[in-house]
Amino acid sequence: MTSPGRATILPIYVVCDLSGSMRVDGRADAVRDALVALRDAVWLNPVVSDQARIGVVGFAGTATVLLPLCDLATVGELPDLEPGGLTSYGAAFRLLRETVRADTARLAADGYRVFRPLVFFVSDGEPTDRRPDWAAEHARLVGRDGPEIVAFAVGEARAATLAAVATSRCFVARTDVAVRDAIARIGDVVIRSVVASSVTGGQTVVGPAPGAFDELDLL
Amino acid sequence: MTPFAVDAAALRQGPVLGRGGQGEVVEVLGVDLPGWPATEHLVAKWYLPAVAPDPAALTRLVSWRRSLDDRGRAAVDEVACWPRAVLLRDGRAAGVLLPRVPAEYTFTPRSPSGGRVTVLRELQHLIAGPALLARRGIPDTDPATRVRVLAGLASAVAFLHERDVVLGDLSVKNVLWSPVRGVYLLDCDALRLTGTNPPVRQPNSPGWDDPAFPGTQNQQSDRYKLALTVLRVLARDFHTRNPESAAGALGRELLPILRAGLHHDPAARPAARAWRDLLHRREQPTPQPKEVTDVPKPTVNALRGNRDG
Q1: Which residues of chain B form CATH 1.10.510.10?
Q2: What is the pLDDT of residues B2-39, one digit of tens each?
Q3: Residue B110, beta-bridge partner list
Q4: CB hemisphere CA count around A179 (13 angstroms)
């Protein structure tokens, strides 16, 4: 049993595009491999179990909570990823807002203090819903008490679009890097950020190793 | 004389061993310089371009170790991953040559994916409670081992403090321990000597910050972090700053020194050598059991009463 009360938990969400384009070129497999590596990293670092909870949301035409917020070290089987369909950013932002709100309330009710949640948002394509629609959902998501969003553009996703999604940092994969390799490197970023955040007791985003991504200036 | 700086071209490099926020660590298969001692296993830590280390500060650290006599140098090498030389790339300081972490500070659990992995035995594995460890198949430590490791840490900090070193950042990942050997400090390329700047920006972990020195790090904040480490290791709690939470494991007689160590007034904090002497005494209990009956005995149950996930 834990004795919460004093502990502060950092909720972390991996939000991943699972539209039809993720079926090609081993992209979805790369996401699954990255989740396995993340689970193993959490398992090897007990401090993460103590300080962070991790959830996974997938989106295409609709959005789904693939893995509810949890101590990832306790997860034996990771969810299957079945890409297919459109790319509705609006659906992703709406589900994420509802999920973050419910998770935060539950952690608080359990006696934890809760850091501002951290979201890693990965997309390989442009949204298929209308910009005013997803922009409105995005505004609701990042409003007061909303999460910080680190956004990654890979494949056909445009830098300017993900820059509008990001609230803290935005990384754009270089065109000469295969999308599956870029996804693997995003997995490294998530792992190192999760561990660093747990070690420092706050939100720490460790950027990707040089070579595969460019960071956009959000100002 | 062995040079203070080594060019990348003189290194025979092997595979990348790890990547971190500041750069990557690469195995060194050999250093092709006349007179370079071939006996030590080394690694190269190459900084990311954004880190931009101060070459003079790095050289100071290399020079500090070499200025010690043989005994002092052996003592440092036993407890600290201390830079052997500055590494140059295109004529600029871009990394450091470090000793490889001794095998006693690693262990090889089986990961959930099934493979054996070699993992550094970090302070987090000493603080983590029995449930967090059991879930991972990692053997728990007994109270005597934890006191012995803490005594080793206090000795290492005392030794370095007496020689003008400031540790700066103590974290659950940069202190390694071994049940048979003691402690081993990582990230020593980020340390500084009193009165000088560190080679690279020292992180200040919010969970370990010293309320008296929110923006700076010095030997007094090291004392605070040493006391916080003693508290958290004995209480098996990653968060606590409350001395009472270690009372069961520490014995009430040690509460005053713990309170002093965590005092907001830096002048009240005991030096690392006071912790060293006290913990070494605890490590070797007096052979007459009668003399210790008034000290609450550290029990496994007392330790399990705390956060363990």
Answers
A1: 107-304
A2: 889 999 999 999 999 988 778 899 999 999 998 888 88
A3: B116
A4: 20
Does any domain span residue A130?
yes
Task: In whole angstroms, give the CA distance from residue A34 to residue A72.
Answer: 13
Taking an 8 Å cut-off on Cβ atoms, the answer to whether B171 and A200 are in contact is yes
Model pLDDT for residues B114-146, shown as the tens digit of each residue? 888 899 999 999 999 999 998 888 889 999 999
Tokens for B186?
Answer: 């990582």
Structural domain B5-99, CATH architecture: 2-Layer Sandwich (3.30)
Residues B69 and B8: their CA atoms lie apart, in Å, by 28
Looking at the 3D structure of chain A, how many domains does it have? 1
Q: Which residues of A touch B128 (CB under 8 A)?
A: 46-47, 50
CATH number for B107-304 (one of 3.30.2290.10, 3.40.50.300, 1.10.10.10, 1.10.510.10): it is 1.10.510.10
Restricting to A residues 168-187, those with a Cβ less than 8 Å away from any Cβ of B are none
8 Å CB contact of B124 and A3: no
Global pTM reads: 0.88
Query: In percent, how much of chain B has pLDDT > 90?
Result: 67
pLDDT at B299: 35
A33 min Cα distance to partner chain B (Å): 11
Question: Is this complex's ipTM strictly greater than 0.90?
Answer: no
Q: CA B209, B298, B157: angle at the middle one, nearest 5?
A: 40
A111: domain range?
8-216
Chain B residue with minimum CA distance to A1: B309
Indicate which CATH number applies to the domain containing A192: 3.40.50.410
Burial class (CB in 10 A: 0-12, 13-18, 19+), A23: middle
CA torsion, ordered B190, B193, B195, B196, to nearest 10 deg: -40
